[in-house]
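Issue 218. Parser rejects a valid record. Input:
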Amino acid sequence: MDNKINPSDIDIHTLLPQQEPFVMIGKLTACSEEGVTTETVIKPSNIFAADGRFHTAGMVENIAQSCAARMGYVSKYIKHDDIKIGVIGSVRKLKILGHPKAGDTITTKTDIIDEVMGVTLAVATISVGDELMAKGQIKLAESGAAPDMSKAVKPSEAGADVVAHKSIYKFLSSENTDDGYLETLELDPECFIYKAHFPENPVTPGVVILQTACDALSRQQGSDLEIAAIKDARFLNILSPKDTKTVEVSLSGIATDDDGNVTAQVSVSHGDTVFANIKFTCTEKEKEK
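Output the parser choked on:
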């Protein structure tokens, strides 16, 4: 390891396979084999802050990319190896306590619990100043070498007003089922997100799958919902628009408590292939004051 390297001096884009406009972290402030701390200014142009609030999907991606940047740092500066793609394997025990606003600087701290055979398990927090915004557990898995970054989409080509999860699919149909609700969606392989995640090897981001599940529950409930907590979300297979054109989003176990919080179990699949199983709680989206 080169002890002269200051993590905050490193261009974050050199550590991540994700490229703009899907980069959700600003800079490293501390990084080691034991954990990582990042700082990020939430810009109004952030694709997960279209209404001035940093949404849960963006917060989860911020945690995931903080872990991925640490993986890149360890590979490049400690092990002197090639940077690998890291994909979300699971998110558990995540609780959203607040949503940062555009212009806020968030601090994300992750501590490594375990790391074996390319799988990293970590606990993470997001704060704005002294205010805790989120806490939870995440698992990342290495999935091949990072792509050629020179072919990544430029921020100017993406359009700051495009919301990621709204443009990555087209709604086709819905129906009520014996135990819930079923939607069929068509993926858009030309969506700019796939050019940034990842160049030459497009993969549907796990956080977009999470938000897609929330979108489906919103339509079923007739309300504008956002994710408030994730009990357990497991991403079981890579969802690529090259291989899969349509997906089914199945909701079951839907229940609403006295405070209006809606819990549900969601499965995202195509045929016999299950891409994700999610247990989460959503709540009415806070209106901008």
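Fixed in the parser; the record now loads. The radius of gyration is 18 Å.
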